[in-house]
Design goal:
Strand content: 15-25%
Order of helices and strands: HHEEHEHEEEEHHHHHEEEHHEHH
Length: 298
């Protein structure tokens, strides 16, 4: 809702100010408001509200970086969502950032702009490269993995986008992130797991491998498989068990997972599971996996 909308409905400027101060309404940016219920939205959705307000406020903006990533449906893990990122046309050497808006000074060509839901955003390739230039390695790799896995980009198209970004700041960092990309990773957690293996010099596993029994039937598709050790690694997110499911369905899924593990063990494999909390202490996770691999090798 805009100030104009609300005043047309009979609200006064004083009433708006009072509603914001009491928490009954939230001011997204000067002149743009939402109901207090927006506080219950996820971090991603609150940023998208800010994007919608900026789209109404600014003149034909092109959203870039993390704002474009969210509109495109890419993961937000590690992205700085406090500011909306938009393109500033031209070749100005200094941006004019505000508390709410980051103005990117890198020029955007016409073929690097796509429209999603009525919003103009940088293309997936350009968005991934921009995040690689501006954000940390792990976040950049996770976004690149998701873009390729979701078929929004390919390894080849991302390398073309890197070449087009020649001369821009942070390009070396983006190139490093692209070398670590693997579009077979199905989640941020799987991406971070791969980076943990690499950072701590663990053997490289096969990703998304089908495990076949002695009769040629597929038993499971596993996240990571150290074939020479006979070790299977599974990165578990509670979402696959709990999100949107009643208690009976949760129990059924947990039981099915337990039965699957039992069948894999019966085939002679060792199975190790880890969760998001383990990824927050990667050195401990790496040591756990190393112990299992050494025991299997022995």
């Amino acid at each position: 809702m805009t100030t104009h909308d609300l005043i047309a409905r009979g609200a006064s400027a004083q009433a708006l100010s009072r509603a914001v101060s009491t928490g009954a309404m939230i001011r997204l940016r000067p002149g743009f408001y939402v109901d207090a219920a927006a506080r219950e939205l996820s971090r991603d959705d609150r940023h998208l509200l800010m994007v919608l307000a900026a789209d109404r406020c600014l003149v034909a903006p092109v959203f870039t970086h993390w704002s474009a990533a969210l509109v495109l449906g890419l993961p937000s893990w590690g992205l700085p969502l406090r500011q909306v990122s938009v393109s500033r046309n031209g070749h100005a050497q200094r941006s004019r950032n505000t508390r709410l808006t980051r103005h990117d000074v890198s020029p955007v060509e016409a073929d690097e702009i796509v429209t999603v839901g009525g919003l103009q955003v940088t293309s997936p390739d350009r968005t991934v490269v921009d995040i690689g230039r501006a954000c940390g390695r792990d976040t950049s790799v996770a976004v690149a993995d998701a873009a390729v896995y979701g078929e929004l980009a390919t390894a080849e198209s991302l390398h073309v986008a890197l070449d087009r970004a020649a001369g821009r700041s942070g390009l070396k960092k983006a190139r490093v992130a692209m070398t670590l990309m693997d579009g077979r990773s199905e989640s941020v957690a799987e991406t971070l797991s791969r980076l943990t293996f690499s950072d701590h010099c663990l053997p490289t596993p096969v990703i998304q491998e089908d495990i076949i029994d002695t009769h040629g039937n597929r038993v499971a598709r596993v996240d990571f498989f150290w074939r020479e050790h006979g070790v299977i690694g599974e990165c578990d997110g509670f979402g696959k068990y709990f999100d949107g499911h009643d208690l009976r369905e949760v129990r059924r899924r947990l039981a099915r997972e337990k039965d699957r593990d039992a069948e894999l063990v019966a085939l002679g494999y060792r199975v190790i599971h880890w969760r998001w909390a383990d990824l927050e202490r990667p050195w401990l996770l790496a040591e756990r996996i190393r112990r299992v691999l050494l025991a299997a090798a022995a």
